[in-house]
Amino acid sequence: MRILSFIIWTFILYLFGGFNEESPHGKDFKISCSTCHSSKGWSLDKEIYSFDHSKTKMPLTDSHKDINCKMCHPTLVFSEAKAKTECVNCHTDVHQQTTSNYCDKCHTPSSWIVNKITEIHQQSRFPLLGVHTMTECQKCHKSETLHRYDVLGVECIDCHREKFMSTTQPNHNSAGFSTECSQCHYIYSYEWAGSGFNHSFFPLTLGHANVECAKCHINGNYSIQSTDCYGCHKKDYDATTNPVHLSGCYSTNCMLCHTTNPGWSPVNFDHEQYFPINSGKHSGIACNQCHTNPANCTYYCLGCHNNQSELNNNHSDVGGYTYSSAGCYNCHPKGNAGGKK
Question: Of 150, 166, 190, which one is at a domain's C-terminal end?
């Protein structure tokens, strides 16, 4: 009986090339048959399979663990080209070479789902910043399929040309605006106008916040305008009568006295360095109560302190006293009744 079994086994080996020098896995294959097969037959015996694939250039992890050998090695000659480590050797490139031949830049062996697309995109020519981090891929990568990622370009205008051309307030095309949108628009804003507009070269605050562009950019001229207040507010300056600015004694540098508050008030002129008007009896007086001559910026104390007889009596013992505004100021520079303090 043993002899019969031996004869049959020998015959099987002969039929399947067991006595041939060349293995069905290739002539250079050196691994022992018992690593994968048993006397049950030539099919892979998973109970005794002991080949350590982790020592090769292609460790089998996650979803690769359970695939059939022939999916990567269809001829079972493991040295042939199909048994390479590049993903595209086994997987069809559904992106049609619009990304990369290296699937592992975006995918992992556990899933085709990409979980860190923003982080991955940071390594590209166009890192995703601001509102771009929440933009759908197909907004920029437009193609006939959802898998192709053709690149439109990396400049703002490449994606936003339609918005640029259709904008009329102001007209971006005819006014010669730069196509580098980030010069005027914040990349972190969800809107193009209002808070989304970058006017940092001249901050639009308070009274300037809601002014129409054309108020300053006259005749559609959107080249860099002067930031000098007088350039836009000459009419306001000329029309002011309390005090009269046209007298020539008031600077055209509006910021010396005003802020961007609407209505030109409150006035922030530092009058305290000349004469206190924020406290005491002089608190709250109007400019033209002391500056009575529109053509002259000098003060006029005698406009209020005009009882000469009373003043003369009060100063009868003061040497050098004169009934004049200059005399008042020389002795009372802080407005105090007791003299210089």
Answer: 150
Instruction: Give tens-digit pLDDT for 250-307.
Output: 888 888 888 888 888 877 778 888 888 887 788 888 877 888 776 677 788 888 899 9
- Please indicate, yes or no, if residue 78 is contained in any of the structural domains: no
Cβ within 8 Å of residue 203, ≥6 positions away? none
Q: Please spell the DSSP secondary structure of 207-244, one letter per residue.
A: GGTT--HHHHSGGG--SPPP--HHHHHHHHHHH-BTTB
Which residues, including other chains, have CB under 8 Å from residue 110's CB and lie 6 or more apart?
A: 61, 62, 63
100 is in which domain, residue-wise? 86-150
In a domain, 92, yes or no: yes
Adjacent-strand bridge partners of 197 = 185
- Is 70 domain-assigned? no
Q: Which of these, 200, 166, 167, lies nearest to 182 by C-alpha position?
A: 200
Same domain, 300 and 322: yes
Determine what percent of the chain falls in helix, strand and coil, rounding each to the nearest 5.
Answer: 35, 5, 60
User: What is the rounded CA–CA span in Å between residue 338 and residue 149?
Assistant: 85
DSSP secondary structure letter of residue 160? H
At residue 19, the pLDDT reads: 45
Taking alpha carbons only, the member of 63, 141, 145, 144 closest to residue 103 is 63
Q: Is residue 68 part of a domain?
A: no
pLDDT band at 227 (very low <50, low <70, confident <90, very high): confident
Read off the pLDDT of each residue in 301-325 and give the average, rounded to a whole number.
Answer: 90
Write the CA distances from 153 to 128, 130, 160, 162, integer angstroms. 13, 18, 11, 15
Domains in the chain, number: 5
Q: Over the stretch 272-285, which tens digit does the pLDDT of each residue have?
A: 888 888 877 888 88
- Tell me the pLDDT tens digit for each residue of 64-77: 888 888 888 888 88
